[in-house]
Amino acid sequence: MASTHGIFLATAPDQRGLVARLAGFFYNLGLNIVDASNHTESLAEPGPRFFMRLVVDLEGLEAPPASAGLGGSSSRRSLETAFQGLCDELGAVGSVRYSDVVAKVAILVTKDPSCLYDLVLRQRAGELPCDIPLVVSNHATLESVADGFRIPFFCLPVTAATKEDQEQRVLALLRQHHVDLVVLARYMQILSEGFLKAAPPVINIHHGFLPAFQGAKPYHQAHARGVKLIGATAHYATSDLDQGPILEQDVARVTHEAGPDELVRLGRDIERVVLARAVRAHLQGRVFVSGRRTIVL
Amino acid sequence: MASTHGIFLATAPDQRGLVARLAGFFYNLGLNIVDASNHTESLAEPGPRFFMRLVVDLEGLEAPPASAGLGGSSSRRSLETAFQGLCDELGAVGSVRYSDVVAKVAILVTKDPSCLYDLVLRQRAGELPCDIPLVVSNHATLESVADGFRIPFFCLPVTAATKEDQEQRVLALLRQHHVDLVVLARYMQILSEGFLKAAPPVINIHHGFLPAFQGAKPYHQAHARGVKLIGATAHYATSDLDQGPILEQDVARVTHEAGPDELVRLGRDIERVVLARAVRAHLQGRVFVSGRRTIVL
Amino acid sequence: MASTHGIFLATAPDQRGLVARLAGFFYNLGLNIVDASNHTESLAEPGPRFFMRLVVDLEGLEAPPASAGLGGSSSRRSLETAFQGLCDELGAVGSVRYSDVVAKVAILVTKDPSCLYDLVLRQRAGELPCDIPLVVSNHATLESVADGFRIPFFCLPVTAATKEDQEQRVLALLRQHHVDLVVLARYMQILSEGFLKAAPPVINIHHGFLPAFQGAKPYHQAHARGVKLIGATAHYATSDLDQGPILEQDVARVTHEAGPDELVRLGRDIERVVLARAVRAHLQGRVFVSGRRTIVL
Amino acid sequence: MASTHGIFLATAPDQRGLVARLAGFFYNLGLNIVDASNHTESLAEPGPRFFMRLVVDLEGLEAPPASAGLGGSSSRRSLETAFQGLCDELGAVGSVRYSDVVAKVAILVTKDPSCLYDLVLRQRAGELPCDIPLVVSNHATLESVADGFRIPFFCLPVTAATKEDQEQRVLALLRQHHVDLVVLARYMQILSEGFLKAAPPVINIHHGFLPAFQGAKPYHQAHARGVKLIGATAHYATSDLDQGPILEQDVARVTHEAGPDELVRLGRDIERVVLARAVRAHLQGRVFVSGRRTIVL
C-alpha cells in the first residue's frame, strides 16, 4: 500500500537559500522528499515572492493513523511545530495537509447535471481525493442524481427576499459537515460577500473564457461577437463577480456553423473538464494564490 | 496545369431553392462546379440569411487570359452579367473573382519582423495567392527585410500632428499599386475612420484573445489577470478599435511560470499563424461578413 | 416544434452537375433544403468520387407520422422511389433517414464505466439522437449503472471456448432490439469477422492515437516510447484489428511527469469525448466511408 | 544587465536527501538558486532515477568573464570540481554550463527553407541562446537564404557512393566550428551510425506524429490512413531511424477536405514550432535522456 504523505506548502519573500533550507529541514529529520517544486513570482507585490510545495513520505515518522485523534498524532504535531518554526525564521506562510486526511467537498448545483455527474464519477474513480458528504441546490431537479449515488441532497430554494437567510442555512450545512471546499457546479446564484467570507474556499466554473464574456449568457455573447474559440474558466469565487483568481481554462474551436445552442453543448464538455482539473489541483494542495494570479505547482 | 476557376459568392435572405438555383445556373451553362459550400445564418438581422460560395471550372468558357484586357474577357463579362441577373432575381448580393487575377496585398508594419517574414515566406511558398507590391512602415527598421525580398519599402513616419497627412500618403500608395487588401502585420498605429472608409479591406492581428484584453499591452494585461491560455485574433479593422468581425483566433496554454516577456514570445507564434490563416481565407474568397460575425466557407 | 427532416446521402463517381441535379431534385419537388454539404475525394479509387448530404424539410410532404406505419408513409415511399431513380441515373449510391425515426443503439461494455455514463448522459441531454434499448457486457460490473438509468442490461460472459456462442447470443439480442448501431464503449473483447459481418455498424474507441500504439496497453506503450501527446481514436470496427476507418481523434499534452496510470486517467477524458463525437456524427448521418477514410459532412 | 548563471544538471539513482543535498551545496557556498526543478523517473531501469536542474546566480563567485580563458575562470573550475565531488558522493552524473558561454549550432538542410528561416529568425530575436556559425546542405538551393543572414553556407552534395566521404567532411566542419549541437532542419539524408557517434548531439524534425508514420512520406501515409490529426516530432537522432528519444511533439486538426499537399502545408507550421521548442529546450539545458524517454525540466 502507498505510504502516508505530508504535503507542505510555504510561501515567503524571495531570499537566498529557500530551496536548500526547506528541503534540508526534511532531510535532517530523516524524511524522504517524494516531490518538490517551487516557483518565484518576480512581479509579485510588494516584491518577488517564493512558493514551494514539498511532498514528504511520513514513513519515518512514528504515527498512529489520522483516525486515532483529531488533527493527527502527537508526532505529526511535533513536525508541524518544527515546520512552523522554520517558516517563522523565513518570514514564510506555511501549511500542511496529510494524504490520509481526506478533504470534504460540498457541491452546489441548480439544474444542470453535467458537472455534478462528472465530479461524482471522478471521485468514485479515485481521481479526486475527497469525500462528497452533501449536494446543495436551490432546486429539486437533481435530487435523483444525488440519490443515485447515495449522497445527501439538501434543497434550499432562494429568492431575493430569502437570499440572506438561505445563505445562512447553506453555511450551517457546510459547518455541520466539516466541509473544506465548496464547488459551484453550475450553481446559478451569485454568492454574497458575507457568504464568501464565512465559507471555506469556493471554486466556480464560468462558462466563458474569462475575462471575456463576464456575467450572464456568455455563450450568447460569444455567438454575437463571432468568436472562433469558446472556453470555460474555473476560478476561486470572490466578492468581485467573475474576477477571482483563475485556476484553469480551456477552449474548443468553433465555426460560424455553431449557433448559441451548439455553443452551449460544446461548452459543457469544456466546463466539466476544466472544473475537474481545478478541483483536483486544489485537493492535491498544488495551488497558491498570489494577488489575482494562481501558482499551480 | 490547373485550369482557371471562377469563385462566385452570393448572399441573400434565406428562401427556398437557393442551392438548387445557384448550382443549377452553372450546370445549365455547362460549367463544372469544383467546390460548393453554403451556410444559413439563422440569427442574422433582420432575418435568416443564406451564404454560398461556388468554385467553377472555367474551362468550358471561351476565354482569353485575364491579361488580355482589363477586367477579363467578353465571355467573362457575359457570365458576370448573367450571374448578376440571377442575383437580382434572388435579392442576392453577388461577387466574382478569378484564380488567374492575383490579388495585390500591401503589408503595413512598424518594427516587429515576425509577421512580415511569415507572410512573405508563405507567399513565396505558394500558400498565399497574391502579389505583395509594397511594404509600408512608420519606421525604417524593417527596410532591410523588404529589400532582402526585393519588395519596395515605403517609410512614412507619423506623429499626432502629421497623422492625417501620413494616412493620405498611405492611401495614395495603395491606389497607385492597385492594392486589394491591406494587412496590418503588427502596425502599431490606430487607423482613422476616414482611412478605413477610403481603403480596401484591412486585416489586423491583435495580440490578445479578443474580446478579452482589448487595447494596449494585452500580454501584460493577460499576465496580471493570471490567465492560463493566451491568444491572438485576426479581424477586419473597423472604426471601432478591436471590435471588427473576427476572422480567426487561436490560443496557447501558459502556466504561472511565464512572465510577460515569455507571453510575448509565445504569443508571436500564435499571431503569425492566425494572421496567415486569416489572410489566406480572405484571398481564397472564403469570407463573408454578417454583422459582427464572419462566415468562412 | 421543429419540423421533420429527411437526411439524404448520395455518393457517385465525380461528374458535372451533381450539386445542381441533387439540389434541383428537391427544389423541383417544392421541398426546402435546410442544409447541404458535399465533398469530392480526388484520390479515391478507382477515380474521383463525389459525396453529398442534403437535409430536407419535409413540411411540404403530406406525411402521416412515422409511427403510423412501418417504414413511413406512402408519400415518403414515393419520395424515396424518386430519389432512388435519380441515384440510378447518376450511378450513385443513395440512402435516406428521417429525423422522426430514432436510431437504436446498443452499448457494449466490460468494466470501465466512464464511456457508458458519458454516452447515456449525452443521450439524456439530447446530444445523441437515439434510443439505447440495451447494454451488453461480458461482466456484471456495470449492471447497476444500467439499472440506474433503467436500461436493460445483459451479461454474457465469454471465454475462448464460448466466444462463438456468446457472439451469436449478442447478435440475437441486437436483432431482437432492432439495433442500428453498436458502440463498443471500452468492450475489452475482439469481435470476430463473422460477428462484424452479421452485425449493424460497430464503432469502437481505441485508447491510443492510431495508427500508433495498436493492440494492447496503448498507454503503457506510449509511456515507454516517451511521447509528449497521448490520444484516442474512434473508428468503425473491421476484421482488421484497429485498422477500420477513423471517425474522430483527439489528443492531450503530457509531460515526463505522467506515469502510465496518469496517462490512463488523462486518456479517459479524451476517449469519452472522441467516442461521443463519433457516435453523434454517425447518428446525424454525416459519415461516408471511402476506402480506409471517412468523409464527415 | 542580467547576471551570469550556471546551469547544473545532476542525475542519480533515487535516494533520500537528493534535493536537500544538491540545493544545500549551493546555499553553503553563498550562491543563490534562481530556479530549481526535479523529477523522479519511477519506472527507469534498473530502478527509480532522480533528475535535477539548478540554475545558480554566479554573482557571488569571483569570476573573470568566460572570454578570458578557455573553459572559464579558475573559480568556475573550483566550483565545478566541488560539484563533481558531490556528484561522486551521490553516485550522480553531473554537468555544468554557463549562460555566458554561448552554444554553437550547425543547421543541416536540403531544399525546404521553412525551418531554416524559422530557426535563424528566432536566434536573431533572442529566443534561441546560440550562435549559428554555419549552414550545411547537400544542395545549393538555400545558399541565398544563408547569405541573406551572413551565415557561411557549405554545400556538400552526397550520393550513395560518396556518403561516407561526405559525412567525414561534414564532421570536419562541425569540429572546425566547435559545434555543440546539430539541427536537422529538413535534411533529407539518413545519417550513418558512425556519423552520429562522432558528432555532437543531433536533433531531427520528423514530419509525422511518431511512432505513427515512420519513414518516408508521412503526410501521404497519414492521408491514406484517414487520420483526423497530423503531427510532427522533434527527437534526438540515433542509429535507429525515427526511434530516438522524443523532445517535443504537436498536432493540428485536419478534415477529409485536406489532400496530401494540404497536409504538407499544414504540417510545415507544426514542424517549425516543434523543432524550435526542442532546440530551445536543449539549449537551455533542460533536457535529460532516460532510456528512450526525455525529461524536460
SSE order and pairing:
The structure is a homotetramer of 297-residue chains.
Chain A lengths: L4 E9 L4 H11 L3 E10 L7 E9 L16 H17 L2 E6 L4 E7 L4 H11 L5 E8 L5 H6 L4 E3 L7 H14 L4 E4 L8 H6 L3 E5 L11 H8 L3 E8 L9 E8 L6 H24 L3 E4 L2 E4 L1
Parallel strand pairs in A: 5-6, 5-8, 6-7, 8-9
Antiparallel strand pairs in A: 1-3, 1-4, 2-3, 9-10, 10-11, 12-13
Q: Which features would summarize this protein structure in a list?
A:
homotetramer; 297 residues; alpha/beta; Alpha-Beta Plaits; Rossmann fold; 2 domains; 7-stranded mixed sheet; 4-stranded antiparallel sheet; 8 helices; 13 strands; 33% helix
Q: Would you mind describing this structure in some detail?
A:
The structure is a homotetramer of 297-residue chains. Chain A has helices at 18-28, 74-90, 114-124, 143-148, 163-176, 193-198, 218-225, 260-283, and strands spanning 5-13, 32-41, 49-57, 93-98, 103-109, 130-137, 153-155, 181-184, 202-206, 229-236, 246-253, 287-290, 293-296. With 297 residues, chain A is an alpha/beta fold. Chain A folds into 2 domains: 5-98, Alpha-Beta Plaits, CATH 3.30.70.260; 103-296, 3-Layer(aba) Sandwich (Rossmann fold), CATH 3.40.50. In chain A, the strands form 3 sheets. In chain A, strands 7-6-5-8-9-10-11 form a 7-stranded mixed β-sheet. In chain A, helix 7 (218-225) crosses helix 8. In chain A, helix 3 links the parallel strand 5 and strand 6. The interface between A and B is medium-sized, with 35 and 35 residues.
